[in-house]
Design goal:
The complex is a heterodimer.
Chain A: E1 4-7, E2 10-13, E3 19-25, E4 32-37, E5 43-51, E6 54-57, E7 64-66, E8 76-78, E9 87-94, E10 100-102, E11 106-110
Chain B: E1 3-5, E2 10-14, E3 19-21, E4 24-26, E5 33-39, E6 46-52, E7 59-61, E8 64-69, E9 74-79, E10 88-95, E11 107-108, E12 112-117
Parallel strand pairs in B: 2-12
Antiparallel strand pairs in B: 1-4, 3-9, 5-6, 5-10, 7-8, 8-9, 10-11, 10-12
Classes of the chains: A mainly beta, B mainly beta.
Chain lengths: 111, 118
Amino acid sequence: DGGITQSPKYLFRKEGQNVTLSCEQNLNHDAMYWYRQDPGQGLRLIYYSQIVNDFQKGDIAEGYSVSREKKESFPLTVTSAQKNPTAFYLCASTGQYNEQFFGPGTRLTVL
Amino acid sequence: AQKVTQAQTEISVVEKEDVTLDCVYETRDTTYYLFWYKQPPSGELVFLIRRNSFDEQNEISGRYSWNFQKSTSSFNFTITASQVVDSAVYFCALSGDILTGGGNKLTFGTGTQLKVEL
């Protein structure tokens, strides 16, 4: 089945550690996105990529980094510079009519 | 700047009641796109509908219907005969003109928590 997968589903990080969240899609979509969701709030854009080897900062990029070496993959690294990383992270890709399809999400908790 | 407002933080209804979720948007683009997503307790966002700014026809899909009114910058979502399975957070979102590069980013509202009880 075509879709977006994210791993792991739950992730625990110690303060000062970098962690990488995986996002893979087999929908052949060019554009991919990372969002952060905090309790009771909407989604905020972290980074997005329209093509391989290119990406742009979103509204809250500080403390995060990404890469886009393959069309199918768009991993997100939460660095130690991110002061409050505990959140729900959602990856998405864009379909033919600009609708975004989302993965199941990763819940990151800082211990 | 684009903005989406969902003033209703939480709505509780009894099963079989109709319920309308409000969405008001702000944009300077003449071409733009509006979306509704459903987020069940599992967390994954489910795409429900996309509407472009030139199509003001209302749309109905089963128990779901959408009312788009440019004059009031609103894109409201109605669930008819609500069911317990409709319980979720619903997000309204807005993107700009694809051709001018504004369509890459979605601006989300803060969501409306819908609780449908027996």
